[in-house]
Q: What sequence folds into this?
């Protein structure tokens, strides 16, 4: 018998479908990825090939070599503009595609995914995230900034070299407006941040926790949209990723690396996306919104049902998947 | 320079990104699909193998053979139940996964996709859609019914035999609630159905029209979410697919088959989903909502940006893609 579970964060029901249920082992990637070399001459993101990218906007040096490097995206979805125009006529409304779009090169090494990279280097990458996140918001016209990673072909990337992306848009995405509204309504009804409550309940239940440290907890939510859909919540309430402290950055590097290592080892280097959901630095103190990291493991495909309804069918049991990841020996 | 276009139906901005722009030809499927046989002994959906499915709920006979057949889904996401329970505690809210989930076998032939099937047979299939759509809504607990098709692996199907699906859920999807709200707000502001206006404008512009007949128009919307994202709108305003007349059913069969034929010929049998967006039969007369068919061609992949923002980046120009499809000689 299936069960519908309401996801208060996304504002929609999820169908947990045990008739279709698969064991965690069923999601192991069939074909293990090829072993990659540490350097590829034609890769624009490899150390030594810096001339193949546009001039960098940020980098971190350790022992006179960069560990993380940020460059404009050559195929930017939005571009820096000095002025914006808006047009509207009937059902046609448009505006200049102004914004910023950069690539964060996670590591100089072609074959060092976050699961393999030392924790200090993951911390450098997150430090670059924070820096560019704050910088983007200082830019005229930028209303929203999203940081994300696409790992593997099914997750939408064609570049093998480990990298992340940051995009600043001149509009606030409709989905975010909906989530803000939902979170605000919840706060107004119950006098508590929804994510703080979810975290308290998940820590209390324990069964869906993957791991935790002083500042963060990684878990598969009760109403996970898909198999191995993972949330990493900061324990300290804040609406904005930009407010992350040095020690939190250190802890996030640890839990992010560990979570991806568990996915890598448990499922055989699966394709995944992760995104950082956050409000702007101006909204850090907002009581009803809680920033977090969401990892979407691409082991299933969205089909007509999801496209048509926006609801998800999860053919697995969140508790079982969490236990599977928790039990992996690292 | 990119352009942001607002999609009034989805309620979000779309980034039309010419920096990443591809020509229509760039989306041609690299590997042409294998030629399939008309009959496969192990296929539960093939004529002759009726014993391999649960007992049928509907079929249409022509010359003593079925042309379309509807059966319960063996791996149903939701199941028929006689009672529903709801539970709620803190941030955990759940209910019985009650509902109906059936497979519509489009044709007895394993290799007859809608692009190939004669128009009369497509009409039979649509007739089965309408029948089960109306039947589903007569079932206790069913609050929303969605009809969709997954064609090809990237569209989320593993079964080759041409088939569609119909799912009745005990809840109204959050996305639909949002769209109803948006459509109602538009109607209240402008005194006109948003989709009626969009259709009038598209017919007036002409450049994004793929084809039309007495009852329907197929076009690539001004704010298409992705390359070859196609809408088929009924010219007569109605909020509900269930209100479709015999002659409209005939016209829908014609335009649906023709559109899929153009995609098939133009892009080399690409993977796609289509869904029918509709309110319930009780809401047929609602003035602000317009039912329609949406075809999503799976030639690109959604990645972190789409997951994080809900906004889409369309790396192509709607006008060019529409002309490409319109110009194909059938």
A:
């Amino acid at each position: 018998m299936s069960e519908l579970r309401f996801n208060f964060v996304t504002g929609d029901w999820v169908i947990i479908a045990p008739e279709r249920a698969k064991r965690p082992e069923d999601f192991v990637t069939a074909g293990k990825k090829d072993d990659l070399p540490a350097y590829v001459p034609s890769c624009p993101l490899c150390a030594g090939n810096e001339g193949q990218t546009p001039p960098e906007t940020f980098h971190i040096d350790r022992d006179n070599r960069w560990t993380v490097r940020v460059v404009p995206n050559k195929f930017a979805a939005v571009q820096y503009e000095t002025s914006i125009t808006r047009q509207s006529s009937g059902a046609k409304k448009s505006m200049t595609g102004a914004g910023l779009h950069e690539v964060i090169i996670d590591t100089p090494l072609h074959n060092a995914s976050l699961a393999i990279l030392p924790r200090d280097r993951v911390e450098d990458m997150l430090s670059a995230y924070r820096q560019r996140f704050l910088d983007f918001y200082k830019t005229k016209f930028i209303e929203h900034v999203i940081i994300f990673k696409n790992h593997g072909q099914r997750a939408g990337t064609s570049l093998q070299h480990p990298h992340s992306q940051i995009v600043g848009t001149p509009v606030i995405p409709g989905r975010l407006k909906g989530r803000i509204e939902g979170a605000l309504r919840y706060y107004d009804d119950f006098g508590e941040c929804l994510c703080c409550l979810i975290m308290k309940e998940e820590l209390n239940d324990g069964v869906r926790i993957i791991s935790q440290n002083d500042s963060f907890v990684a878990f598969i939510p009760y109403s996970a949209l898909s198999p191995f859909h993972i949330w990493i919540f900061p324990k300290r309430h804040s609406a904005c990723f930009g407010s992350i402290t040095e020690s939190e950055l250190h802890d996030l590097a640890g839990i992010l690396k560990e979570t991806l290592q568990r996915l890598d080892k448990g499922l055989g280097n699966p394709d995944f996306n992760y995104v950082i959901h956050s409000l702007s630095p101006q909204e850090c103190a907002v009581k009803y919104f809680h920033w977090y990291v969401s990892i979407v493991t691409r082991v299933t495909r969205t089909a007509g049902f999801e496209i048509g309804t926006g609801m998800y069918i999860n053919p697995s049991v969140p508790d079982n998947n969490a236990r599977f990841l928790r039990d992996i020996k690292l």
In short: Chain A touches chain B through 75 residues (CB under 8 Å).
